[in-house]
Amino acid sequence: MTKLYIDSKQKEGFINPEIYGHFSEHLGRCIYQGIYVGESSEIPNTNGMRNDVVEALKEMKVPVLRWPGGCFADEYHWKDGIGPKSDRKRMVNANWGGVVEDNSFGTHEFFELCEQLGCKTYVNGNVGSGTVQEMNEWVEYMTFDGESPMAGLRKKNGREKPWRVDYFGVGNENWGCGGNMTPQYYANLYRRYQTFVRNYDNENPIFKVCCGANSSDYEWTEEVMKTCAYKAPDHLHCFMDGLSLHYYTLPNGDWQHKGSATDFDESQYYTTLHKTLFMEELVKKHSRIMSKYADEDKVSLIVDEWGCWYDVEPGTNPAFLYQQNTMRDAMVAAINFDIFNHHCKVVRMANIAQIVNVLASVILTEGSDMILTPTYYAFHMYRHHQGADLLHTNLTGNTDVGIKEEEQVPKITQTASVSSDGIINLTITNVSTDQPENVSVSMEGISNFEVIEARILTGKIDEYNIFEDRNVVSETDFNGYTANDGQLSIELPPCSIVLLRIEENK
Ligand code: AHR
């Protein structure tokens, strides 16, 4: 039997809410149709944003949103997306299918969306094809409160007060679509560009994100850190607050034949989970290199693209990256969340790719219709960990499950945290395709408690929601537990995530 020990008094780090962050790119039907439909649309909207999508996202709790890309960011010229919409430039979205980008969603619309969602902002600047001046002026346009050409332009376009930019990315994937640069070349460009990302609001300085590695490219991390953070002679010169990391789970490990989102067998399921677990090695190895140059409280890891990447749904535009989302994706999300939570001292933010209609989305839309995916429910159940303190846990008796000898994965994964109001949040996942698991939980530091909320997400590994049947998989109440004399016993069905919220009786 699996035993979980939770020490309710031993806190092991703060789970930054942004670990549950999202990413929205001008790609396929993510921004256009998925989120933004324009004020004149028949789809109910507020200032152009779909009411149904915004409501669902608010309920799920979006802490931060990254925009405008992705690869799109390094071809985006922000001045094309401001001013009267009829005057905005129409351009080619060369990265994503060569479709026309009419720039009707730009800077003002992004901040409007974040205001509606009540989330922090993460703007990604253009290093690949943009100038230093362009980046400098964008920051001035967004954040300067005084009198200046860009602040004046912003006011002319209807926004008196500056916005708050919480995070700013200086380029994206500059080792690839963002300019095919070497780490040495990018690192020097980064130092130059970030100089002109000015902090006009000293009380809320912009958190600068330097472009980090593709998966296990440790040389990139080493070179970039070496150039952008060093001690000379006694003083730390550090030009960044965060270094990004992109890692996608590819079920077949092959970009040409990624595999179907919905049509897979048990063996492929476990392969997918096994590949997802590689995230932990990446977090450990990259952060170890980073710590040679700057302490973890100086530079954090920003996993600003993660999730499963499959073949597109048959019959859809290959450049739009539209894929379905099954219970397998919810398991992948739970595994990643638990890795990020357990490494919350180094991981400050993570952004699933992407929020609506692209890759591992939490929402899919078709015209005026919308469905929530299993990944949505995983985010929804884990939302209680946002801004909570990670608790010390010890799991014993956990077995490995899988088909292939070399691709076994731990059956149970979990996170326990305590919120500022003292409530303990436990999310516990059984990834087995067919075996239930009984977990006995003992709580150190609390003798008398009550479970105040219990929820479950469960289903067959390849189940998913469709527009004709939107509740095949959804979060429901859970009663498969007993709580007696300070002991908690949980019966986890196969392929399930359980949330228990526990309050001490005083
Ligand atoms: O999320 C899709 C793409 O994946 C992003 O645009 C890019 O940064 C990454 O390669």
Automatic annotation (TrEMBL):
The UniProt record lists the keyword Hydrolase: yes
Keyword set includes Hydrolase: yes
Pathway per the UniProt entry: Glycan metabolism
Gene3D superfamilies on file: Glycosidases (3.20.20.80), Golgi alpha-mannosidase II (2.60.40.1180)
Keywords, alphabetical: Carbohydrate metabolism, Glycosidase, Hydrolase
Molecular function, one GO term: alpha-L-arabinofuranosidase activity
Pfam families: Alpha-L-AF_C (PF06964), ASD1_dom (PF22848)
Domain Alpha-L-arabinofuranosidase C-terminal stretches: 304-496
Signal peptide range: none
GO biological process: L-arabinose metabolic process; polysaccharide catabolic process
Catalysed reaction, written as an equation: Hydrolysis of terminal non-reducing alpha-L-arabinofuranoside residues in alpha-L-arabinosides
EC number: 3.2.1.55
Assembly mode: Homohexamer; trimer of dimers.
Family as reported in the entry's similarity comment: Belongs to the glycosyl hydrolase 51 family.
Stated name of the protein: non-reducing end alpha-L-arabinofuranosidase
Native source species: [Clostridium] fimetarium
